[in-house]
Amino acid sequence: xxxxxxxxxxxxxxxxxxxxxxxxxxxxxxxxxxxxxxxxxxxxxxxxxxxxxxxxxxxxxxxxxxxxxxxxxxxxxxxxxxxxxxxxxxxxxxxxxxxxxxxxxxxxxxxxxxxxxxxxxxxxxxxxxxxxxxxxxxxxxxxxxxxxxxxxxxxxxxxxxxxxxxxxxxxxxxxxxxxxxxxxxxxxxxxxxxxxxxxxxxxxxxxxxxxxxxxxxxxxxxxxxxxxxxxxxxxxxxxxxxxxxxxxxxxxxxxxxxxxxxxxxxxxxxxxxxxxxxxxxxxxxxxxxxxxxxxxxxxxxxxxxxxxxxxxxxxxxxxxxxxxxxxxxxxxxxxxxxxxxxxxxxxxxxxxxxxxxxxxxxxxxxxxxxxxxxxxxxxxxxxxxxxxxxxxxxxxxxxxxxxxxxxxxxxxxx
Length: 414
Fold this sequence. Notes:
3-stranded antiparallel beta sheet, globular
């Protein structure tokens, strides 16, 4: 089947609308054998659309990593051999009828989830599993029953507080306990090329900071998975059967532009590059553009003194009840700046100094969870310079850099 799938992938056009062409697509994908067992023409067409969408995404990602939009005997074919049959297996009974617009597997729309598909009677071919985004962040043992392998195929953005890696940690932990293999389909890190920020102090560990790493860690999810296992950050780490499928034609010195948003409030490359620096404002009274068309690309507050730029947050699909909803906020427009490879704390220091006299509650209750320590808030309040703040990170950053070297799968940026 792999040769047929390869041919189908090579001819997939990422820019062609397929919504009105289900019958043609069904004829195309029947050659792969992936439509076997679907009797209704409508269901075949819907499943063909799902497969086509997944194939297009594989082609787009191949072009982003320099493989020219074709899949050879390397990583591309490995991805295709896993992704396409899994689409057919998981969505065969329900999604083909109801969820034709579902995104390709590598592009979660803000939800980190897994599917627990269990095969028993012909009436119940699989059971949808539990969400790992919300109240249940650790899957139950019962929901994992009968699984042989968990596949992690999610695009991270390279910041400690981006919680996809926390979901990965929790899943690795239960896989180690239950003897389930864990496979990572690795992805480029769009914020690689530098390491910066305070290393997490483990007494402040939370779901938005689970690992003793800096804010910008310069690891892929595959490398981080190896570190989690190697540093014994999960129980029974020695029992975990971990495998990482590496990326072709990428290393830590190369820029990677994501073809689509990795989550609803990171709509473009500029927001992704600014995210590590601007996320520090999440536990302050300052808005970073949630509730606008440009989240994580602006900074503002109704009382900021420079009135040359403003925006007004409103409730939108991506963000209900944003900070300062309906109030004009003044601040800084970062949409067209060239983002430097550094964690920018100048913005944070500047906004605190300009708002501290009118906003005594500038820092939120849980700012330390994002910062990874309680020092940063106190340093800024005490008027410590940026240079002195950065110097306070140096010892732990040096230790982290040495540790990181042991787990690299790709050529480093330095």
